[in-house]
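Subject: for your reference before the review

Hello V.,

The reviewers asked for a structural picture of the protein, and I figured it would be easier to keep everything in one thread rather than splitting it across files. Below is the amino acid sequence we used in the manuscript, unchanged from the supplementary table.
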Amino acid sequence: MVLLFALAAAADPAPIERCGYRIVQSYPHDATSFTQGLFWDDGHLYEATGQYGQSRIARLDLKTGRALIQAKLPSDQFGEGITRWQDQIIGVTWQNGIGHRWSIKDLKPVGSFRYDGEGWGVTMVGDSLVLSDGSSELRFLDPATMREQKRVTVRFGGRPLAMLNELETIDGQVWANIWMTDMIVRIDPATGAIRSYIDLSGLKADAGAKGSDSVLNGIAWDAKKKRLFVTGKYWPKLYEIALADCR
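And here is what came back from the structure prediction:
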């Protein structure tokens, strides 16, 4: 996958910035959590996890990694990404076509909805909810009605880039984990063009995560303190990182 990124970058006449990283700090993370969604809000991390019978959303204590409050999904649903909209958390499921709404105050359910196709990651861009589904497309939806507004194809070096997974919006760009890789890409939501990516090679090993399913997944941004958090599925650590050696 690293070679694919390099070839695509070489083929694109517009420069694609590559960044490395440095670890600012690490925190405990529940190693039984199959992390699917992550965001920061008002002093806490919120995490969504997957796997049938184990899917949940939770408000986490950063210092301990423990759930302060949580809500479980039905056992026949596979949880995926989450994001905040107004006073709600909106979450999607993998292949169930069912989304959920919870009150961000107490994680009590306040509604559900249906949508077509798969659900992977979600984030808010302006007034639109942006959904990834494992393809190279991002779907823009009205968060109140979940009606589709438009689609944008994400391209790296002019080529469609699939496996877009967990999403986070930072300074107007959509950051996306690329499933089964150590890469996060930064996407222009207006055009789908990728002009930079972050290579997080080595972070999984540092976390001590084992197994092919224990991939990088989870991006959260503390806008107030300008802190960037990342983790992975079944990782025993969550990291605050800073970008480094961008070129």
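For the response letter, the relevant points are probably these. The chain has a mean pLDDT of 94. The two ends are 19 Å apart (CA to CA).

Happy to draft the paragraph if you're swamped.

O.
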